[in-house]
Amino acid sequence: MRIKFKLNGRKVELDVPPGRRLLDLLREDLGLTGTKEGCGEGECGACAVIVDGKLRLSCLTTAIQVDGKEVLTVEGLARDGKLHPIQEALVETAGLQCGFCTPGFVMAAYALLLENPRPTREEVRAWLSGNLCRCTGYEKIVDAVLLAAEWLRNRDG
Amino acid sequence: MRKTGPVEIVKPRDIAEAVRLVKEGGRPLAGGTDLFVRIRKGIENPPFLVYLGELPELQGIRLREEGAEVGAAVTHAELLRSPLSARVPILRLAISALGAPAIREMGTLAGNLANASPAGDGLIPLYLLEATVRLAGPDGEREIPVEEFVLGPGKTALRPGEIIRSLWIPFPEGKPLSYFRKVGRRRALVIAIASLGALIWLEGDVIGKARLALGSVAPTVLRPRQVEEALVGLPLEPEALRPAAELLSRATQPISDLRASADYRRKVAGNLLLDMAISLSHRD
Ligand SMILES: Cc1cc2nc3c(=O)[nH]c(=O)nc-3n(C[C@H](O)[C@H](O)[C@H](O)COP(=O)(O)OP(=O)(O)OC[C@H]3O[C@@H](n4cnc5c(N)ncnc54)[C@H](O)[C@@H]3O)c2cc1C
Ligand code: FES
Ligand code: FES
């Protein structure tokens, strides 16, 4: 089928089977490999993206489900060559090691801060419960999200 | 999906077309958080899927005087953001324990129900509130209680071509206390070892009426009515509820599986009732 959607602010239109996974569509058809495949079954969060402002797992989303929608991936966060504050904060707190899980955490944190700009540590932890990281032990990732929340609040007044 | 190549999916324009496509053998698809996983694991291989998630007639939550009608395409996250979840705390408690944020953003309450898992967290409030299921099918519409809709693990009363149109959730009378807890290993994602939801109406210092619903301890979510009756007249204190907890353990029909043995599940069920008494009597 012919599907049209907005990807990181740009219109895309392509012919794909309606049941093609959004994950494959992004990585293979469109060459955006920032979105990662961990489990392929909804358990790890590595494939998380934002669709119409809401967090989704691209491994459990198909092409037909994003037709006409706005999709945001980790590639769409940087502005004018500058990392997004969530990404900056992860660097600052050393919230990543191998980095495989990082795009998923970044997108999950992005969705959290859209909904709740002032989360508590416990709320951040609970929110990130759908993302797995085998390296960091999570605490520095939580630190980063709290730091990014503070930066964003200062920036956006 | 990767194993079998992309699955065929069609998007109907309205309920009538959806019903026709499902009658032809298409499988309803809402959020896909159950169905895509099962297809990927090779547990199921439906000929094609009928995507209901964006059908206009299945959207939205309509609040009425006596209850709320929840469209079959309403996601868990939408429910949590709606005034309904503030009005009915048991719904909020159970649904916020279901999966993680992305799963709640994608998955629907109707999908959770149609999946008919004895571990389905969303089923607990539906049983407690005595919700009904509004169905649309080739022979028109009908409405049946949730307890008659779920027949066994993965088995429902859906007839060929029928889809869930909405769920009717009656508001409970008065102001019952609400309790929900699931015991599992990893908080957000685990499908429970056992779970207990409860609505407790106090009369003075004692329990005037109680509804209990247990997950993962029987082939379907369980309403142990003899235990509900045994609670009437008792103070809401763990010591007083000990015999009822034992009765509850005996009322369960758990299985042993990879997650827990039947004996352990039975014990957990009884302990959850004591935990309920502790946490509700310490409320402020
Ligand atoms: C990582 C992960 C964690 C999870 N954690 C939990 C958890 O903690 N607790 C829990 O209860 N569940 C959990 N689930 C299961 C799942 O997310 C829920 O059951 C969810 O509510 C299913 O809804 P859906 O819209 O995604 O259903 P789908 O996958 O789209 O459909 C599920 C079933 O319902 C049928 N169906 C859907 N809509 C209709 C309709 N309108 N009419 C007729 N049939 C219909 C489908 O044909 C299918 O058989 C988890 C799943 C994953 C992947
Ligand atoms: S790859 Fe999608 S959740 Fe793991
Ligand atoms: S940094 Fe390696 S998995 Fe998270």
**Any idea what the shape of chain B is?**
globular
* Named CATH topology of the largest domain in chain B: Uridine Diphospho-n-acetylenolpyruvylglucosamine Reductase, domain 3
Q: How many E strands of chain A?
A: 5
Order of helices and strands of chain B: EHEHEEEHHHHHHEEHEEEEEEHHH
Q: How would you describe this structure to a colleague?
A:
The complex is a heterodimer of chains A (about 160) and B (about 280). By secondary structure, chain A is an alpha+beta fold. Chain A has helices at about 20-30, 85-90, 100-115, 120-125, 140-155, and strands spanning about 1-5, 10-15, 50, 55, 70. Chain A has two domains: about 1-75, Beta-grasp domain (Ubiquitin-like (UB roll), Roll); about 85-155, [2Fe-2S]-binding domain (DNA polymerase, domain 1, Orthogonal Bundle), CATH 1.10.150.120. Helices cover about 35% and strands about 15% of the residues of chain A. In chain A, strand 1 and strand 2 form a beta hairpin. The longest helix of chain A is centred in the C-terminal third of the chain and has 18 residues, at about 140-155. Chain B has about 280 residues and is α+β, with helices and mostly antiparallel strands. Chain B has three domains: about 1-50, Uridine Diphospho-n-acetylenolpyruvylglucosamine Reductase, domain 2 (2-Layer Sandwich); about 55-170, Uridine Diphospho-n-acetylenolpyruvylglucosamine Reductase, domain 3 (2-Layer Sandwich); about 175-280, 2-Layer Sandwich (Enolase-like, domain 1), CATH 3.30.390.50. Chain B contains twelve helices and 13 strands. In chain B, the strands form four sheets. Chain B has a five-stranded antiparallel sheet with strand order 4-5-10-6-7. In chain B, a hairpin with a 2-residue loop joins strand 12 (about 195-205) and strand 13 (about 205-215). In chain B, helix 10 runs antiparallel to helix 11 (about 240-250) and helix 11 runs antiparallel to helix 12. The N and C termini of chain B lie far apart (about 50 Å). The relative contact order of chain B is 0.11. The interface of A and B includes residues 20, 41, 48 and 129 of A. The complex binds flavin-adenine dinucleotide (FAD) and FE2/S2 (inorganic) cluster (2 copies).
